[in-house]
């Protein structure tokens, strides 16, 4: 998801309402009408927490939310992969394959997509899952009362979305001609709509449990009804979430693991300790101090990602309203030093907003075709960049930083965020600007940033699908993931034209113009391109890690 990183990435659990089940799934079978989750038709599960086929991993701390419609973080999105099955899915080669839908058809004009669901689909509580569940779930994402951060991104091209987002949710052109047919009508063709149909935000959710439990449905194992390979049988905040094999999943016979236990650890040293002790077989958060000693370890991996680590300057604040100030703060950063020294070469210096590996209309690298083939920021000439930054601050009325207010820079304390923040104190001091570092607990960080309740903040984005619009859409003024609160009607118009354009080359031109504009105005400050570095036991087989930042453990196995 996506989805934002970021490495993104990023989350809380809905704290005091979260309850844990008593060691295994609730055994009160029902049809789903009262929103309790039995985990099987027979209403029993026999998998103990200590199963030999239990994979224990750390992919993040407490999630902000595990409601598919509300999640915007990578680690939350990864958890959703274990719990839900979207219409389509992504395989180990990042190709779109059937999911809950066994097939689909697209009309000649590209405006009507018809998905045929597999026969006999069920929820984890044993109740039937039909096409009407997808109608409900997609309308819920469009519903302004839901306030889904990804709503416009994933459904903006669907006919009637504007009306649905305005409150008339039945205007969204999704329908169920019968129980196994789900039909979507688009207002304009969308070449990557198959990838959206495989995106976690558009997972089906159970209407009965939501109506019975409200927002709390996604905070307790007994009400968290799923349709994917696993369901949640235990959930202990700040400790772990236990995903247990779902016998009602259509492909349950292919699932080799009995359970996946996710350790909810925020501190990388604690994660590393869990790995060293053998408690965890995989950890996402590796202490940066340990990286030099791990370089020759075959269980240490550095994988490229499609995404950018960047800085938000809250564009609604007076001190950041002048593009010259934003440009100056951007140019004062030595990106080679940050990526190669502070980040120990695990990231790559960012000269553009859209980084490496993102495809252009003809299959070439979008980045290579940006700005006439010239990087927006020359990462090789920091001295020249700094001199220009000082001149820009002077032109903006803040010579040597005189009268410029102190910047409060917010971050969550994992990975390289703190060392980058400490570096920014030095880098922006070169412009006469003082920076205070504000460390925020992960549980509060992403909602604070999304609400615009900050001055400057670390941020990041990992692509949900390989199309430059996935990240450029972030800067549209109405986008729910526009944390920087960038607002430029000219930019919005370019992205609107790109969304409606059917000619791939012309569409690409609009997207390049949009990046030109946001980079010229420093609406966002790219710093580095992401890589994932992690530890994973060689005993885990059959899993894969995607360039979107997800670990696919659904079909994994454990060997001795």
How would you characterize the overall build of this protein?
26% of the residues lie in helices and 19% in strands. By secondary structure, it is α+β, with helices and mostly antiparallel strands. It has two domains: 270 residues, 3-Layer(aba) Sandwich (D-Maltodextrin-Binding Protein, domain 2), CATH 3.40.190; 229 residues, Roll (Dipeptide-binding Protein, domain 3), CATH 3.10.105.10. The strands form five sheets. Strands 1, 8, 9, 10, 11, 12, 13, 14, 15, 16 and 17 form an eleven-stranded mixed sheet that branches. The longest helix has 17 residues.
Class of the largest domain in CATH?
Alpha Beta
Supply Rg: 23 Å
Average pLDDT, rounded to a whole number, is: 90
User: Count of DSSP helices?
Assistant: 16
Overall structural class, as computed from helix and strand content, comes to alpha+beta
Name given to the CATH homologous superfamily of the largest domain = Periplasmic binding protein-like II
CATH architecture annotation of the largest domain: 3-Layer(aba) Sandwich
Extended strand count = 21
Major beta sheet summary: 11 strands, mixed
Helical coverage, percent range? 25-40%
* Proportion of residues in β-strands: 15-25%
N-to-C span:
33 Å
Q: Report low-confidence residues grouped into runs of 5 or more.
A: 1-51
- Described by the principal axes of the CA atoms, the overall outline is globular
Number of domains: 2
CATH fold description of the largest domain:
D-Maltodextrin-Binding Protein, domain 2
């Amino acid at each position: 998801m996506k989805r934002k990183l970021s490495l993104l990435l990023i989350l809380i659990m809905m704290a005091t309402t979260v309850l844990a089940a008593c060691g295994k799934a609730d055994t009160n079978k029902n049809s789903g009408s009262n929103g309790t989750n039995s985990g099987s038709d027979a209403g029993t599960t026999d998998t103990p927490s200590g199963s030999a086929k239990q994979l224990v991993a750390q992919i993040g701390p407490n999630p902000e939310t595990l409601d598919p419609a509300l999640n915007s973080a990578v680690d939350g999105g990864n958890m959703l992969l274990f719990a839900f099955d979207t219409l389509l899915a992504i395989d180990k080669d990042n190709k779109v394959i059937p999911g809950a839908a066994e097939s689909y058809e697209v009309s000649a004009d590209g405006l009507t997509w018809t998905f045929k669901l597999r026969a006999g689909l069920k929820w984890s509580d044993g109740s039937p899952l039909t096409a009407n569940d997808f109608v409900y779930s997609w309308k819920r994402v469009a519903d302004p009362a839901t306030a889904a951060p990804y709503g416009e991104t994933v459904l903006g091209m669907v006919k009637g979305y504007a009306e649905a987002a305005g409150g008339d949710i039945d205007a969204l052109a999704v329908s169920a001609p019968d129980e196994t047919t789900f039909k979507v009508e688009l207002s304009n063709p969308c070449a990557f709509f198959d990838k959206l149909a495989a995106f976690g935000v558009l997972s089906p959710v159970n209407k009965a449990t939501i109506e019975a439990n409200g927002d709390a449905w996604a905070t307790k194992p007994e009400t968290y009804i799923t349709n994917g390979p696993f369901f949640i049988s235990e959930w202990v905040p700040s400790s772990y979430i236990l995903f247990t094999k779902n016998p009602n999943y259509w492909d349950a016979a292919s699932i080799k693991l009995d359970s996946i236990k996710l350790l909810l650890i925020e501190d990388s040293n604690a994660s590393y300790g869990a790995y060293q002790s053998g408690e965890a077989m995989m950890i996402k958060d590796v202490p940066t101090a340990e990286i030099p000693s791990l370089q020759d370890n075959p269980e240490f991996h550095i994988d490229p990602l499609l995404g950018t680590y960047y800085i938000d300057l809250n564009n609604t604040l007076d001190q950041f309203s002048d593009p010259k100030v934003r440009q100056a703060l951007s140019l004062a950063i030595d990106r080679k030093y940050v990526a190669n020294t502070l980040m120990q070469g695990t990231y790559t210096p960012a000269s553009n907003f859209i980084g490496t590996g993102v495809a252009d209309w003809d299959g070439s690298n979008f980045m290579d075709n940006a700005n006439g083939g010239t990087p927006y920021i020359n990462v090789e000439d920091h001295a020249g960049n700094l001199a220009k930054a000082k001149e820009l601050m002077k032109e903006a009325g803040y010579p040597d930083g005189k009268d410029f207010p102190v910047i409060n820079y917010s971050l969550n304390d994992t990975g390289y965020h703190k060392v980058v923040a400490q570096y920014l104190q030095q880098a922006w001091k070169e412009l006469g600007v003082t920076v205070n570092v504000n460390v925020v607990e992960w549980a509060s960080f992403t909602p604070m940033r999304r609400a615009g309740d900050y001055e400057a903040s670390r941020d990041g984005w990992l692509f949900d699908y390989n199309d430059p619009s996935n990240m450029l859409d972030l800067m549209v003024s109405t986008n729910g993931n526009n944390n920087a609160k960038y607002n430029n009607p000219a930019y919005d118009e370019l992205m609107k034209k790109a969304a409606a354009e059917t000619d791939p080359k012309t569409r690409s031109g609009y997207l390049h113009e949009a990046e030109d504009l946001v980079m010229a105005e420093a609406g966002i400050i790219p710093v580095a391109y992401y890589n994932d570095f992690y530890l994973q036991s060689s005993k885990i087989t059959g899993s894969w890690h995607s360039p979107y930042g997800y670990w696919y453990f659904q079909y994994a196995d454990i060997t001795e």
